[in-house]
Design goal:
The chain is mainly alpha-helical and 190 residues long. The protein is built from seven helices and no strands.
């Protein structure tokens, strides 16, 4: 069973910590902070909330902060979590942008940026592997979830279809079968 934050300040500082560590790979940091360190979410809850965050407009982790802040403390919690996500990182990014503008043409700067891109890809791959744990307990089961994952990957990464045209049909399939299972389980309840 997941715990919950005791104060809005704890929520603010946790999302500040996530945002300040999450340059290019915030999902890995968010998963570790919210599931493993703080234990505010179970692995399954993180997968579910991240999925909702992905299909909403706007940055995924900001959507996640709004969802969790609202769940724990209502609109004030959502505001605290979003402020944690945006305040300090905005200041850091503005400083880095000013610095980068002066040194962007240097070979060492371009090399650093390429190295950071590789690290970000590794972070994302690591989180995908961790999220498989949450999928193994999903109501659809691991294999149907993996089939939806593979279909999405194929359509977006290989066929380069627009995300909205992939999410609508495949998301619809996932929702349809999840609702059927929920309806069936509700019918079995005493």
């Amino acid at each position: 069973m997941a715990q919950r934050p005791h104060t809005k300040a704890a929520l603010f500082w946790s999302f500040t910590r996530i945002a300040l560590q999450g340059f290019g790979g915030v999902i890995a940091i968010a998963q570790r902070e919210l599931v493993e360190t703080r234990q505010w979410l179970t692995a399954q809850e993180f997968v579910d909330d991240w999925a909702v965050s992905q299909v909403l407009p706007g940055p995924n982790v900001v959507n996640l902060s709004i969802i969790l802040g609202g769940r724990f403390f209502g609109w004030r919690g959502a505001l605290a979590a979003v402020a944690g996500m945006l305040m300090a990182p905005t200041a850091v990014v503005l400083c880095l942008a000013a610095l980068f503008a002066n040194y962007a043409d240097l070979a060492v700067t371009q090399g650093m940026m390429r190295g950071v891109a590789c690290i970000s890809a590794g972070l994302i791959a690591g989180v995908v592997l961790r999220m498989l744990n949450g999928l193994s307990t999903h109501m659809l089961g691991l294999w149907p979830c993996l089939a939806l994952f593979a279909s999405t990957f194929f359509a977006v990464a290989l066929l380069r279809l627009p995300l909205v045209w992939v999410l609508l049909p495949l998301g619809g399939v996932g929702i349809f079968f999840s609702l059927r299972i929920l309806k069936r389980e509700k019918g079995k309840a005493p």
